Amino acid sequence: MTQTDAAAKNLGDPGKTRRVVVVGGGTAGWMTASYLTAAFGDKIDVTVVESAQIGTIGVGEATFSDIRHFFEFLRLAESDWMPACNATYKLAVRFENWREPGHHFYHPFEQMGSIDGFPLSDWWLRYPRTDRFDKDCFVMASLCDAQRSPRYLDGTPVDQGVFETGHGEETARATMAEYQGAQFPYAYHFEAHLLAKFLTKYATDRGARHVVDNVVDVALDEHGFISHVKTAEHGELAGDLFVDCTGFRGLLMNKALGEPFISYQDTLPNDSAVALQVPLDMDREPLRPCTTATAQEAGWIWTIPLISRIGTGYVYASDYCEPEEAERVLREFVGPEAADVEANHIRMRIGRSRRSWVNNCVAVGLSSGFVEPLESTGIFFIHHAIEQMVKYFPSGRDNDRLRNMYNRSTANVMDGVREFLCLHYRAAKRADTQYWKDTKTRPVPEALEERLENWKYKVPDAETVYPYYHGLPPYSYNCILLGAGGFDIRHSPALDMADETAALAEFERIRLKAEKLVQELPTQNEYFAKMRENA
Ligand SMILES: Cc1cc2nc3c(=O)[nH]c(=O)nc-3n(C[C@H](O)[C@H](O)[C@H](O)COP(=O)(O)OP(=O)(O)OC[C@H]3O[C@@H](n4cnc5c(N)ncnc54)[C@H](O)[C@@H]3O)c2cc1C
Ligand SMILES: N[C@H](Cc1c[nH]c2cc(Cl)ccc12)C(=O)O
């Protein structure tokens, strides 16, 4: 649709927000364009402008289980998008060597039970069945160790309960906020550039305009609102709302509008990464249904199994490790398969924009904020931002209240995830290098210091974790604290007197359910080999 078409559709009404210009064609840009077209159809006019010269970040392949709501909102079933994105399932993050060499534990997608008002983790501290908190309290930990698929070969999902949406699995349409309390049993891994390509078609098939060009200037009016962006070859792109999806550069939000950036670097020092895309033959190599985070001397290496390749990379602190050393460590970790693969070195901007919505500009993705991908939160931030953008969508220009509510919500999500990541380093037992020694003394957000002291006496629960919505449930904190081994946590004194019968029965129920599912479920390799056969 040309700008004149948009005018003809009365899209230029100053009292309405009808023309949305998205600058950037990475995961953030195309997730935003797709979601807005799904939300508002032809009531708004969406244009995406992306540079052919400036690349996307090229990584970002593991997700939260909440991402299911994004695809459902677009009315997409897994069969619609997973094959196009070489996607696999993710049951958990597997943390290796965070406690000591050779040790691993999981942070799974599975609610943790409670007995007589006490979390299962508290009962486990009083009556530990084994030395594996994760396997004793979560069925999924055993499925991860056995590298099982979360679906049977006929496609039936492992836990029917999570799909009771009232609409059937394929057409449920909901936001993350509507599902608080429920817990889907798995998330996904997918190839980032293939997802962007898939969503480009999804959005343009539904009317979004795609302009491949460089934005060379951002024009502000006398009120500091963006009137248009100027492109190298396609003239001016006018709009009512501009979405900055330009990545770490924050072209509109931080450069044109001058919105300050709040760094998290003092508490999260990992500011660099080097990534490899390593070919994988799923007929010969296992497809572990987890994202793996393997601790290293100055950071950690991610391993993300996809249908055709492994996404892997070393996230490290440049104060402790040079890029060349990081690449050497990564290549040694991967082995000979990495020999002919080009490395992608990335400098990460850790922190967030003070505000992510200023005047008529909303930043989404890396331009809004980012923390290292230890818990796969980048795409969750995008998804949350887009849902909130629709929730607080402006009627015109006078929307201070909507903007303020949006900015508070966005800041809380990122500040909360920051705390959760800081916890990983404080809770990690290892202290064998200066990097790991420093994790024990490095400052953390003040509120977290207080929470850490409290958690030594009482496992984390809804009353004692970060109080605002940030995507992570209390059980996630228990997984990290009791998995990483660096904290001595006491059980509640009440459990010295309470009857433990029901708790011990619950541990046995978990053990038997895990045993049964490991016997019944296919491996992820078997599942996707079957899907390939049926294609
Ligand atoms: C090392 C690393 C690992 C990560 N792993 C994960 C993960 O496992 N899970 C997860 O959820 N997230 C992860 N992330 C975050 C994830 O990669 C990003 O959130 C996601 O890719 C969104 O990026 P983006 O679209 O904001 O920016 P980018 O991908 O950088 O895209 C920026 C876009 O802006 C365009 N652009 C820039 N300037 C201009 C201009 N002047 N004119 C026109 N176009 C312009 C570019 O062409 C590009 O299309 C990771 C990030 C890093 C750095
Ligand atoms: N909103 C939850 C967040 C969550 C719960 N468990 C995990 C495990 C991992 Cl590895 C990442 C995020 C979460 C969800 O998306 O499931």
TrEMBL record:
Q: Output the Gene3D superfamilies linked to this UniProt entry.
A: FAD/NAD(P)-binding domain
| Residues involved in FAD binding | 25-28, 215, 366, 379
Q: Which UniProt keywords apply?
A: FAD, Flavoprotein, Nucleotide-binding
Could you say which residues bind 7-chloro-L-tryptophan here?
90
Listed InterPro entries: FAD/NAD-bd_sf (IPR036188), Flavin-dep_Halogenase_NPB (IPR050816), Flavin_halogenase (IPR006905), Trp_halogen (IPR033856)
Q: Name one Pfam family in it.
A: Trp_halogenase
Q: Which domain of life is it from?
A: Bacteria
Q: Which SUPFAM superfamilies match?
A: FAD/NAD(P)-binding domain
An example of a GO molecular function for this protein is: nucleotide binding
Q: Which residues form the active site?
A: 90
Sites where the protein binds L-tryptophan: 375
Homology family? Belongs to the flavin-dependent halogenase family. Bacterial tryptophan halogenase subfamily.
Protein name listed in UniProt: Tryptophan halogenase
Record the organism: Saccharopolyspora antimicrobica
